[in-house]
Amino acid sequence: MSFPEGFLWGGAIAANQAEGAYAAGGKGLSVADVATYKPHADVKDYKTHTAVSLDAIKKAMGDTDCTYYPKRRGIDFYHRYKEDLALLAEMGFKVFRFSIAWSRLYPTGEETEPNEEGLAFYEDILKELKRLNIEPLVTLSHYEMPLHLSLKYNGFTDRRVIEYFVRFCRTCFAHYGKYVKYWLNFNEVDSIIRHPFITGGIIPELCGDRGETACCYQALHHQFVAAGHSAKLCHEMVPGGQMGCMLTKLMTYPRTCAPEDVAATQKKNLENMFYSDVMVFGEYPRMILKDLEKRGIEIQMAPEDLSVIKEGTVDFISFSYYMSMTESVDPDAERTPGNTVLGVKNPYLASSEWGWQVDPVGLRISLIELYDRYRKPLFVVENGIGSKDVLEEDGSIHDPYRIDYFRRHFQEMEKAIDAGVELMGYTSWAPIDLISASTNQMSKRYGFIYVDQDDMGNGSLKRIRKDSFYWYKKVIATNGRDMSDEI
After folding, report:
1. Is the pTM here over 0.70, yes or no?
2. Could you say which of 3.20.20.80, 3.40.50.720, 1.20.1730.10, 3.30.565.10 is the CATH number of the domain covering 8-477?
3. How far is 375 from 27, CA to CA, in rounded Å?
4. Going by C-beta distance under 8 Å and a sequence separation of 6 or more, which residues neighbour residue 381?
5. Which residue numbers in the chain have pLDDT < 70?
6. Active site positions, annotated
């Protein structure tokens, strides 16, 4: 068993969690810039952390203090990207996944011409990556919709936003296509059902009589259409360009072998893969349409929408994988959090400090399941464990728990490859500590590189190599052949 020659080892970040400099260079406010850190809320209570209201948004717009809006400051990647990319190159990265903040190129989303300072910033990053011989993997939409589009149109609920997004994509392909071969359309496109505001700019109070759930599915449809347009544009404008979709792989097992639990689990897994089904096969699954009909949810479609989706299918499937869960019809079954979801607790698995159940074998199962279903190349673009790291007096950070986590997941990836899965690459989430997506914390650390900043924004922002930094460097250098503890 071995990883294929040319396997793309690397890591992934998002602009809204790393860049900071939220008002610099002509950037407009995004939905991420009004996300608040709630220090007294339960870190496992995602609904509280992702809740949004018009009053809260207006309050945030009038507040210039970044203390409780951590994504405005990030880790200052905006000013420190050369230092950070040098560290990734030192680890031997073959690929680096990052996103382009829509509101840095189009501050309100409605401009007809892009912001030149924003264009130059991302071109500088791409030039530096080229100099370092690191392949870029660019996400076009990673929870960074311009806030103006959310307030004026209720985000992707309004089909006019498709046009604005396609304009943004066209600009990215025109300016960066000479540097970027691999693209992703929407990060965790399925998440619009779980956190509609940060994914699709949906504000519940603007949904009216139609209701939030119906708005979510309407916005999702508009994202599917936008994704179809973006894939077609990518193929036309970027020589050799490839477009991928990005799914939150929520691996779910039956809690018991009771047929009712198995049926409930089957339904949950079919719902999870519905999103990639549309972007791979170019059509809505019949059973999903039937389910929406039963629920009284009607999606308004323009005559050309389904043909756009059909003509704009993706070239590869990427996904995030952090944990697994189980499902049961038992109303008293104990539930535990995962990646912005709740699932029934699996007694056979250990959990992270945030309650996420660690399941390396589930990654192998996911890879085999997805490849068997789609027969297209796969890319693991998010995987990692959030932990509270300790900075020792001598400046070292010992994180054997992180090394153990990655080793066990890499070994399962190897088994999937040996079984015949076509796996393009792997990008950890995240190679450097950054602001957590849901809880807006800094203390939930994922990186191989420690960033000296606490939850309230205090710290020097100094970058420090953890033990896992040297371990991952060795894994990359040997293309996965040496995963021993020695660093």
Report:
1. yes
2. 3.20.20.80
3. 40
4. 12, 97, 137, 184, 246, 318, 319, 320, 426, 427
5. 1, 43-44, 46
6. 188, 382
